[in-house]
Specification:
This protein has helices at about 15-25, 85-95; strands at about 5-10, 25-30, 30-35, 40-45, 50-55, 75-80, 100-105, 115-120, 125-129. The chain has about 130 residues and is of the alpha+beta class. It folds into two domains: about 5-55, 2,3-Dihydroxybiphenyl 1,2-Dioxygenase, domain 1, CATH 3.10.180.10; about 75-129, Roll (2,3-Dihydroxybiphenyl 1,2-Dioxygenase, domain 1). The two termini are about 25 Å apart.
Length: about 130
């Protein structure tokens, strides 16, 4: 078995789509729109075949979670760059472009080389080798 996709509710679907396309080379589907439900979504596909669904609907309330504090539930998405140098370069680019870096590139206690950045909606992204 494999995870087919993960979905994120967002109030700014276009900004989030552009973020994942620009920094993580995601390829977007055409936007799906259900006018009756006022629902919109994109499926973003990564080189590995993994997919991320971005969804927007006016009736979905803003999260009450604090992006700087851990909480129960889905807490991050890990995206592999394939090389330590790519982790460093992408983290540097995101920082230079004004994105919040929560943890600079480092080797974790369990042996991963990673950094952690917040996407435009405050979702934690682990950038790994």
């Amino acid at each position: 078995m494999k995870i087919e996709h993960i979905a994120i509710w967002t109030s700014n679907i276009e900004e989030l789509k552009l973020f994942y396309e620009k920094y993580f080379n995601a390829k977007s589907s055409q936007k799906y729109i259900n006018k009756n439900k006022q629902f919109e979504s994109y499926f973003l596909k990564f080189d590995s075949g993994a997919r991320l669904e971005l969804m927007s609907m006016n009736s979905i309330p803003e999260t009450k979670n604090d992006v700087f504090v851990q909480f129960t539930g889905l807490i991050h998405i890990a995206i592999s760059t394939g090389a330590k140098e790519r982790v460093d370069a992408l983290t540097r680019q995101l920082k230079n472009d004004g994105f919040q870096i929560l943890d600079a590139p480092r080797i974790t206690g369990d042996g991963y080389y990673e950094s952690i950045v917040l996407d435009p909606d405050g979702n934690r992204i682990e950038i790994t080798v």
